[in-house]
Amino acid sequence: MRAVVQRVDGASVVVDGETVGEILGPGLCALVGVTHDDTPEKAAQLARKLWSLRILEGEKSCSDLGAPLLVVSQFTLYGDARKGRRPTWNAAAPGPVAESLVDEVVARLRELGAEVATGRFGASMKVSLTNDGPFTVLLEI
């Protein structure tokens, strides 16, 4: 699994003009990509990492501050544009596999006590955020 994590001061996801997920104030926005060999165990590991990652103000984590997370599925994190001008998506897991594993990340975060907002899998989403820093980290699990 791969995640692009941004420290934010608010973030939201809009689908067809409707806000489907939103966090207010300090927290994290995580764009999550899934590849073919990912498992529920990797999803749980990513959830623990997101919950405890110390990148908020004062080197605090979401678990330290009770800060919310916005988790958005992002298959394009496994795009490969090394050859030619058009990326390939061969490394991205198929939709049904990816959706269940992103759902697993969200479920595990909630089990840990996190407030989690989400996008809508497979939808054309408009993600808005205020990157605080700017601060962006790439995680590979």
- List segments where confidence is low: pLDDT < 50 over at least 5 consecutive residues: none
| DSSP strand content | 35-45%
CATH hierarchy, class: Alpha Beta
Using only C-alpha atoms, the radius of gyration works out to 14 Å
Strand order of the largest sheet: 4-3-2-1-5
Structural class: alpha/beta
Count of helical regions:
3
Give a count of the beta strands, DSSP E runs of length 2 or more.
5
Helix content class:
10-25%
Task: Give a structural overview.
Strands 4-3-2-1-5 form a five-stranded mixed β-sheet. Helix 1 (40-52) packs across helix 3 (95-111). The N and C termini lie close together (5 Å). It is globular, with a radius of gyration of 14 Å. Helix content is 24%, strand content 38%. By secondary structure, it is α/β, with parallel strands linked by helices. It has a single domain, classed as D-tyrosyl-tRNA(Tyr) deacylase (D-tyrosyl-trna(Tyr) Deacylase, Chain: A, 3-Layer(bba) Sandwich), CATH 3.50.80. It contains three helices and five strands. The model has no long low-confidence stretch (mean pLDDT 97).
Key phrases:
single chain, 141 residues, alpha/beta, D-tyrosyl-trna(Tyr) Deacylase, Chain: A, five-stranded mixed beta sheet, 38% strand, globular
